Amino acid sequence: MAKKGILTELNEDLVSFFEGEKLVMLSTIDHESHTPNVSAISWVKCLDKNNIRFSVTTNSRTIQNVKENPHVVFTIIGLETVYSIHGSASILEDAMKGVSLKLAKINVNVNQVLETMFWGAKITTEPQYEKTYNQKKAEELDKEVYEALLK
Q1: Within the chain, what is the greatest distance between any pair of CA atoms?
Q2: Hey, is 138 helix, strand or coil?
Q3: Residues 6 or more apart from 147 whose CB is under 8 A from it?
Q4: Cα(12)–Cα(48) distance, rounded to whole angstroms?
Q5: CATH 3.40.50.20 is the classification of domain 12-149
Q6: What is the Cα 39 distance to its own chain's centre?
Q7: 20 — pLDDT class (breaks 50, 70, 90)
Q8: E strand segments, the chain
Q9: What DSSP character marks residue 39?
């Protein structure tokens, strides 16, 4: 911890949170408009308490956004609250090897973790989503992506 109450790395609960398949909001600064850009992502894994990796398609605006401004924020809704995880992103692979879809691998070095839920409330249900394409193919792709992210 840097200052009292301000975390500079993920705690054990947050590391565990990323073990499952989660919906995460990723905020970047748009490379053209220079305004906030928020994307919903699910291929996200925690490498350790200081690094989070995620994947997006190689044609995603997120790639150029990160190249021009590496400052990002993950917003997660879970563990009965809302967290904003600030960090610096770097592209590790433009197209991950061993993955059948063209996906980039991006690492975020965590530098601040804030609980951002408004006072006097708690989250009672975490966001859930359902994949709407071939379930078997979705599971195979997820396995490829998660394995490649952690290499």
Answers
A1: 48
A2: helix
A3: 98
A4: 10
A5: no
A6: 10
A7: confident
A8: 24-29, 36-41, 44-48, 51-57, 71-78, 81-93, 103-115
A9: E
Residue 7 gets which letter from DSSP? Answer: B
Averaged pLDDT score across all residues of the chain: 94
Backbone phi and psi for residue 139, each to the nearest 5 degrees, phi listed first: -65, -40
pLDDT over threshold 50, residue 1? no
First to last CA, the chain: 28
pLDDT confidence tier of residue 127, bands split at 50, 70 and 90: very high
Q: Provide, rounded to the nearest whole percent, the portion of the chain with pLDDT above 70.
A: 97
Q: The tokens of 1 are what?
A: 């911890």
Residue 121 token pair: 């409330």
Q: Hey, how many other C-beta atoms are within 10 angstroms of the C-beta on 40? A: 11
What was the pLDDT predicted at 133? Answer: 85
Cα-flanking dihedrals φ and ψ of residue 26, to 5°?
Answer: -115, 125
CB-side exposure of 35: number of CA atoms within 13 Å?
A: 1
Residue 40's identity, in one-letter code, is A
Closest CA to 110 of 145, 71, 78: 71
Strand partners for 108: 52, 89
